[in-house]
């Protein structure tokens, strides 16, 4: 029997935790529901989880700080939740750690759709394609970096691996495969989110910002990922198929 994906839910309201757990369990997921970050990290240390669902507003804790620490420890998808009036916090959350945001109030169908999309994306990026699908190893070099699409690894010339979230990896893979192409935000959203999620353009902007911080020698003057005003983005660096 196929093992269920286990979802970690962090929310300090008992009723919300109970509701989220019920919705996810009904959709076929196993759930670990906790009220504090200490409990969350203890659960993570005890057993692997496929995705984390975190509330931005926690009593006595900074949700953004919690999410950033979780991202430091893990590359699993992080979906954050917040109220409609928290756009600034939502953008900060995406910039610092989150792969997606759910704006309260949301329906059970939207919750499950977002979770499924993130898990599908993470699964696609976790396992190499069969050799027949892409001719074997698919590696690209740019600057001091090597992006191995078969092993799903980005490595620097000094030997260190750069941890990328599923969304970051999907975006970088698409752009490196077609350097000098101008990508609209809608086109990049298709590669990073799929078609069954209601996301917004600024998701791409914050993913680009996060990637620049990780791969650019000088993120304030990017050499690789360039903004084309009014059009979108392009990968301007020289890319070599290895």
From TrEMBL:
Signal sequence extent: none
Family matches, as InterPro entries: CheY-like_superfamily, OmpR/PhoB-type_DNA-bd, Sig_transdc_resp-reg_C-effctor, Sig_transdc_resp-reg_receiver, WalR-like, WH-like_DNA-bd_sf
Modified-residue entries (4-aspartylphosphate), positions: 55
Location (main, coarse): cytoplasm
The keyword Transcription belongs to this UniProt entry's keyword annotation: yes
GO molecular function term, any single one: phosphorelay response regulator activity
Record-given protein name: Two-component system response regulator
Species for this entry: Crenobacter luteus
Organism phylogeny: Bacteria, Pseudomonadati, Pseudomonadota, Betaproteobacteria, Neisseriales
């Amino acid at each position: 029997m196929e093992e269920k994906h286990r979802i970690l839910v962090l929310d300090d309201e008992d009723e919300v935790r109970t509701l989220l757990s019920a919705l996810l369990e009904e959709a076929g997921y196993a759930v670990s529901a906790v009220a504090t970050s200490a409990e969350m990290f203890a659960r993570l240390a005890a057993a692997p989880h496929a995705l984390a669902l975190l509330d931005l507003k926690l009593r006595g804790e900074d949700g953004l700080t919690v999410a950033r620490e979780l991202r430091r420890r893990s590359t699993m998808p992080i979906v954050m939740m917040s109220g409609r009036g928290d756009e600034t916090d939502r953008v900060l959350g995406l910039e610092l750690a989150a792969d997606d945001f759910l704006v309260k109030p949301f329906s059970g169908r939207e919750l499950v759709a977002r979770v499924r999309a993130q898990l599908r994306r993470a699964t696609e990026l976790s396992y190499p394609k069969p050799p027949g699908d892409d001719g074997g190893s698919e590696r690209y070099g740019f600057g001091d970096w090597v992006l191995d699409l078969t092993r799903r690894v980005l490595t620097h010339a000094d030997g260190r691996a750069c941890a990328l979230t599923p969304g970051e990896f999907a975006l970088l893979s698409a752009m490196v495969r077609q350097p000098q192409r101008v990508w609209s935000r809608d086109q990049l959203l298709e590669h990073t989110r799929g078609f069954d999620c209601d996301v917004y353009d600024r998701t791409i902007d914050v993913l680009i910002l996060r990637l620049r911080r990780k791969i650019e020698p000088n993120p304030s003057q990017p050499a690789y990922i360039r903004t084309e005003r009014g059009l979108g983005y392009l990968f301007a660096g020289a890319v070599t198929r290895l």
